[in-house]
Structures are given as C-alpha cells and as structure tokens.
What does this fold into?
Amino acid sequence: MLSENDRCGWCLVDELYTQYHDHEWGRPSFDDDHLFEHLILETFQAGLSWHIILKKRQHFRDAFCGFDARSMAHMSEQDIENLLQNPRIVRNHQKIRAAIGNAQIYLKEFPLKGDFTRFMWGFVGGMPQMNHPKQLSDLPARSPESDAMSKALKKMGFRFVGSTTCYAYMQALGMVNDHLEHCIFKYSD
It folds into this structure.
C-alpha cells in the first residue's frame, strides 16, 4: 500500500487527483489530439485550480465535441450561448471564445498530424527535462522554455497561454518532470 510519503503531496486531495498524478501527470505525451485537449483545458484552468478542471474534464469533452479541433472551430454563436448556460463547465465567456479561436488557429498553424507535437516538444529539445525538486516550494511557476512557448503561441494568436499556463502544461504532458525526488512516480533520468 502506498503512503503519502510515496507521492507528490499536491495530489493527496482526493482519489481523482491521486489517480491523475499516478497515471497521467508528467507522463510524456506525443499525440497531437491529447496535447491539443490539454492546452484547451489549461486555458480554462487559468486563474483556477487544476482540481476544478479535472473534476469537470469529461463535461468539457462533451461540451467541446471531444476536443475535435475541426468541430470546435465551427462552433456557432448559438453553440457559444449553449456553453455559457452549461453549469458543468467553466462558463467564462472569454475563455469559451478563446477555446474556439485557439481551435481555429491550431488548424491553420498545424495542418499535418505531428506538427503540433513537434512544435510543442521543440521547446524542450524533444526530450523531457528532468528536474529534481525536493519539496513543493522548489517547483517553479514558469521557466525560460515556458516563456518561449507562451510568446510563440501568443504570436500566432492563441489566447490564455501565459508562461505559468504553459509551464503547467509542460509539467502535465511530461515535457518537464517535476515529480518530487521521493515520489515513486518520478521517471528515471
């Protein structure tokens, strides 16, 4: 049986968070669809806790066409109005419009399968950066790489992609391994 000393302390809020930590957070992902979904979810997380978004993740998937960029890019004003009335997601008008706009930019800038993955992983040289934090206070909120990612995404027109959002994205998708040193889920260098 694993104890709280075997994991990063932030994930001990509830079983959902623990399962996310143990099976998803920090595992390298090289799939465009997964990377796009997570980018949209991270943009909704801006200013909120990831735990809130994680609890609503399936509702976001349902509301945003399974995060199919083509379907999202063609959402109508009526679709936006319906999303604003959906109590199961974060009903922020700017973030909803940003998600749809980000899908449109994604399709324009990354038309071929693998383009988005190559672009996003390019900020870390295609390999996970292995950090060695000993405690939660050692975790940065941003990095030079997340600054560069944010700047590049904003230049294309993406919204809600500040450096802190990009760093959280990089942690979640394994571009940066920030599992604490004692965590049994820290992947070896």
User: Anything to note?
Assistant: The first helix runs from residue 15 to 23.
